[in-house]
Amino acid sequence: MSWIRETELSLLERLTANILKAGPMPRHVAFIMDGNRRYAEKRHVERQEGHTQGFDKLAETLRWCLNLGIHEVTVYAFSIENFKRSKEEVDGLMELARQKFGRVLMEHENLEKHGVCIRVLGDLTLLPLDLQQLIANAVVSTKAHNKCYLNVCFAYTSRHEIANAVKEMAWGVEQGFIKSSDVSEVLLSQCLYSSNSPNPDLLIRTSGEVRLSDFLLWQTSYSCLAFQSVLWPEYSFWNLCEAILQYQLSYRSLQKAQELHRKDEVRQQVEADRTCVAELLQHRGNGKPLDAQSQQTALLNYTARREERVQCFLGALQHKRDTFFSDLNSQTVVAKT
Ligand code: IPE
Ligand code: IPE
Ligand code: MG
Asked: Alpha helices of the chain — where are they, by DSSP H?
């Protein structure tokens, strides 16, 4: 159950990869790895075996992604809703996660060779403490790697993530880092667990289900969505190529939509800053309206101060998150000595 399967592509696969790479390639691909239990049923094996093979498939998929020059992958491994499954199944999945995260230290050399940084996105406090510690080990020990990124969504749902981002902003206001008027779509994106990643270009869901099941709702508004009928443990290199082809076919319209959205975000921010400056000037108001030049200077000054507040807040937030992982990690180091 390694993190990366060390297999080379066949000649035909390499040829196909090269043809695909002549077109626009997604830089970040997200997977809803669905269909493990149906696979187990189809193959007449235990449900846990379906999940084990699902975890194995991740290692293979990562290798294909690296071969295709895709350097960021985000996977939905366990949702908060999945806690509602039978105790036996949840325990089995937690055990798999223990084995998988426990292997990171053993495989450190290989992960370092490929420069794989593992991040875990979700509400880790919902997990057993020993698993939280193993996860923290994995995150801290691969933190400096920067060639490719694997984001594992575990104890994750998008609504929980968005609600958490809103709470973080409320904390920022309470602590005096930011003002409530600094809250914006862009700031909310920066408070998500995924803040260190660009949005996925392509989201793939296997097993034929056509829904997002509360996965990356905020981040995939302008991504290409590919729904494939194959069950996750049976996912193949060719399935991945098919999804990439779908991405390439919709590339132009995606680019256009993303560009419009980016412009809209900038416009929203300028308008918000203008409103704040107008209010401030009115409060200070000595009756005389400012000329256009002074208004522009006031706006520039305000924007610079807001950006400073936001940077300071984001720094504090990152520190809080880093401390969460490093504290958990040092607890295990202390326990082992
Ligand atoms: C996805 O496969 C893996 C997890 C949710 C952990 P499922 O377990 O949902 O399998 P199906 O969709 O019921 O076949
Ligand atoms: C989504 O799959 C979660 C993961 C793949 C981890 P589910 O199988 O849990 O989603 P629903 O219940 O079909 O929506
Ligand atoms: Mg499912």
From this structure: 11-21, 36-43, 47-67, 87-106, 108-114, 129-142, 158-174, 185-191, 237-249, 251-284, 292-336
In angstroms, rounded to a whole number, what is the distance separating the alpha carbons of residues 135 and 329? Answer: 8
| Whether the predicted pLDDT of 323 surpasses 70 | yes
Residue in the structure block whose two tokens are 């696979």: 39
Report whether pLDDT(333) > 70. Answer: no
Retrieve residue 336's tokens. Answer: 């082992």
The ligand 1 atom at the shortest distance from the C-alpha of residue 51 is 3
Q: Is 216 exposed, middle or buried (0-12, 13-18, 19+ CB in 10 A)?
A: buried
Domains and CATH numbers, the chain: 11-336 (3.40.1180.10)
C-alpha 14 to ligand 2 mean position (Å):
32
Q: Tokens representing 236?
A: 């193949």
Residues lining ligand 2, Cβ inside 6 A = 32-34, 76-79, 81-82, 209, 211, 213
Against a cut of 0.70, is the pTM above it? Answer: yes
Structure confidence at residue 335 as a pLDDT band (50, 70, 90)? low
Residue 72 belongs to what H/E stretch? Answer: strand 72-79
CA distance to 12, 33, 170, per residue, from 219 (Å) = 34, 17, 21
How far CA 107 is from CA of 104, 112, 113, 327, in Å, comes to 5, 9, 10, 22
Per-residue pLDDT at 78: 98
